[in-house]
Amino acid sequence: MSFEPYGERAVNTAVALVNSLVLSDGIDGLPDLDACAELLGEHGWIVDDLTSADLKFLRALRPRLRFAFEAQDERKVVAHLNRLLSECEVLPQLTDHDGAWHFHYARPGATLAQRVFVTSLMALLLVVRDRGSDRLRICATDGCANALFDTTKNHSRRFCDARTCANRAHTAAYRRRQRVKAIASDG
Ligand SMILES: [Zn+2]
Ligand SMILES: [Zn+2]
């Protein structure tokens, strides 16, 4: 599969941005520049030139990215992401500045927020192209509205990374293993 080297990182950036919108305790996870620098830094972005304009842009972007995880209809997801992409300052350029050929999609000199925007959109569109839009979903836990990116082979991820939800995921995996054992010993 021709996934970009930065693809998964960029999808995870989008997931983290969406999930900062409203945390389960009702507090916004992207209140200020420090929080924004931390979130982007965790996903490999160099944040030296992060500005308050970037913060404002990324905060406003979150509900628009969220749609890609909420919508069930693949054509709607693609139309939405394509529409967002048409707002971007895109100029694809192949580069090997870090040793491996990869595309930079934002025009040279674009702001950090623009680069995050363009790169996330391209990564989300590549997920749809290569894996299908149902890889982008909302967590199955009642009362959890977090987005998730399902990279499992068998399409089995149902819960996000929040602590309570991750525990459920462990329990579900344990039950699955027990079931497989029971079936195996039946035979
Ligand atoms: Zn690069
Ligand atoms: Zn969750």
From TrEMBL:
<dbReference type="Pfam" id="PF11706">
    <property type="entry name" value="zf-CGNR"/>
</dbReference>
<dbReference type="Pfam" id="PF07336">
    <property type="entry name" value="ABATE"/>
</dbReference>
<protein>
    <submittedName>
        <fullName>Putative stress-induced transcription regulator</fullName>
    </submittedName>
</protein>
<feature type="domain" description="Zinc finger CGNR">
    <location>
        <begin position="135"/>
        <end position="178"/>
    </location>
</feature>
<dbReference type="InterPro" id="IPR021005">
    <property type="entry name" value="Znf_CGNR"/>
</dbReference>
<dbReference type="InterPro" id="IPR023286">
    <property type="entry name" value="ABATE_dom_sf"/>
</dbReference>
<dbReference type="InterPro" id="IPR010852">
    <property type="entry name" value="ABATE"/>
</dbReference>
